[in-house]
């Protein structure tokens, strides 16, 4: 709740009842006026022509309403006062340290939780919520008893968001195939990596369904990239800092395309929390940066990849036909053991913001 406020020439100082104090610049408040003239309640869109506002606007008058639930401000260019709710102001504190990242980082021995669910569980509201909660928390899970075609993949993808199109198509099926320009189509061991380092917006979720398996080997390998970040940050902060600053270039050349993008291995948000891991040694393109940091950077890659290839950090499992592995490609690295025989997979990608959206709508984050 709002306790009191002070008006200064450029700012409004708001004192909350929990003793938090926040300074809101007038122009920011005026830009966020949510009255009929400035805000479309139906579409949640701004109507204000921000460029037309006076950057030095001053508050004419203000008052607290409903015991601190609202603050009402009268602006010189508007006829009626504008109401700002306590929730809106509190949520937008610059000092907001509330974190919405409720995840648990893991290495192999930390995974005692059940990460296998029945596909039909996701059809119930509580089952779907639990599916999202576990997927968000650990970064992956397996759905059992799926149809061994595109049906179940399509159904769960459309529940989360929608199937993302890419160079591989929307829904894809693959087995060992030397005709594709990507290493994931071979039978050799695939070391842990993230997909789409060549894309400015890497795929958010990856879905991989086993449709046929009569082979030796070929286990799916997952590693928690956030755990690797945590470990490097703890053991060598300078290296962590470097890996969160050097933009690494990834590319995909072949199949009629030349795709290229760059970002650091550890992408951080403004609170310095890790939000994305990007690592694909197969797809790393030639790129140069400061010579005096190059050796340190390679030391970083070495440290990162040795952890990723350490079995203590890996979840290894041979998917059986009808089992659908889903993981967060912004966090979890995936790989596959070498194999001999027939191993057929189908799958798709889903955008990160669609997964996040489903988590918000279902109150997971
Ligand atoms: Fe991959």
Word description of this protein:
The protein has 365 residues and is α+β, with helices and mostly antiparallel strands. It folds into two domains: 90 residues, NE0471 N-terminal domain-like; 254 residues, Clavaminate synthase-like (Double-stranded beta-helix). It is 22% helix and 32% strand. It contains eight helices and 22 strands. Strands 9-10-20-13-22-11 form a six-stranded mixed beta sheet. Strands 12-21-14-19 form a four-stranded antiparallel beta sheet. Strands 1-2-3 form a three-stranded antiparallel beta sheet. β7 and β8 form a beta hairpin. It starts with a strand and ends with a helix. The chain binds fe (ii) ion. Fe (ii) ion binds next to loops.
In a nutshell, what does this entry contain?
The chain is of the alpha+beta class and 365 residues long.
Throw out a few tags for this protein.
alpha+beta, 2 domains, 22% helix, four-stranded antiparallel sheet, NE0471 N-terminal domain-like, 32% strand
Gap from first CA to last CA? 23 Å
Q: Count every helix, treating DSSP H or I runs of 4 or more residues as helices.
A: 8
Instruction: Indicate the proportion of strand residues.
Output: 25-35%
Bound molecules: fe (ii) ion
Topology, element by element:
Blueprint: E1 2-7, E2 11-16, E3 21-25, H1 26-31, E4 39-40, E5 45-46, E6 61-65, E7 70-74, E8 82-85, H2 86-91, E9 116-118, H3 125-138, E10 140-144, H4 151-160, E11 172-174, E12 190-193, E13 205-217, E14 220-224, H5 225-235, H6 237-243, E15 248-254, E16 257-263, E17 266-268, E18 274-277, H7 291-308, E19 314-317, E20 324-328, E21 332-336, E22 339-350, H8 352-361
Parallel strand pairs: 9-10
Antiparallel strand pairs: 1-2, 2-3, 4-5, 6-7, 7-8, 10-20, 11-22, 12-21, 13-20, 13-22, 14-19, 14-21, 15-16, 17-18
The structure holds fe (ii) ion (FE2).
């Amino acid at each position: 709740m709002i306790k009191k406020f002070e008006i200064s020439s450029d700012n409004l100082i708001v004192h909350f009842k929990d003793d938090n104090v926040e300074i809101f610049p007038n122009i920011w408040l005026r830009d966020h006026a949510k009255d009929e003239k400035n805000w479309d309640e139906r579409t949640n869109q701004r109507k204000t022509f921000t460029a037309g506002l006076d950057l030095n606007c001053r508050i004419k008058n203000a008052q607290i309403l409903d015991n601190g639930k609202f603050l009402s401000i009268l602006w010189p260019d508007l006829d009626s006062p504008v109401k700002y709710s306590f929730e809106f102001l509190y949520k937008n504190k610059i000092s907001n340290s509330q974190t919405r990242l409720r995840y648990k980082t893991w290495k192999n021995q930390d995974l005692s939780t059940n990460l296998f669910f029945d596909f039909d569980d996701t059809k119930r509201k509580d089952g779907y919520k639990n599916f999202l909660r576990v997927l968000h928390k650990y970064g992956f899970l397996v759905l059992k008893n799926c149809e061994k075609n595109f049906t179940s993949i399509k159904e769960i993808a459309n529940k989360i968001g929608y199937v993302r199109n890419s160079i591989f198509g929307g829904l894809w099926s693959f087995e060992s195939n030397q005709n594709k320009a990507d290493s994931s189509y071979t039978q050799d061991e695939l070391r842990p990596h993230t997909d789409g380092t060549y894309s400015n917006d890497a795929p958010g979720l990856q879905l991989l369904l086993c449709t046929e398996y009569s082979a030796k080997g070929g286990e799916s390998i997952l590693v928690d990239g956030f755990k690797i970040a945590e470990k490097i940050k703890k053991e060598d902060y300078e290296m962590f800092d470097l890996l969160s600053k050097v933009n690494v270039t990834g590319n995909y050349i072949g199949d009629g395309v030349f795709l290229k993008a760059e970002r650091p291995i550890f992408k951080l948000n403004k609170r310095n929390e890790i939000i994305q891991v990007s690592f694909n040694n197969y797809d790393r393109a030639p790129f140069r940066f400061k010579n005096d940091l190059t050796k340190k950077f390679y030391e970083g890659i070495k440290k990162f990849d040795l952890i990723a290839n350490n079995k203590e950090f890996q979840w290894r499992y041979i998917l059986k036909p009808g089992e659908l592995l889903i993981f967060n490609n912004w966090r979890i690295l995936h790989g596959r053991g070498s194999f001999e025989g027939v191993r057929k997979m189908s799958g798709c990608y889903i955008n990160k913001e669609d997964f996040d959206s489903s988590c918000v709508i279902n109150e997971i984050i």
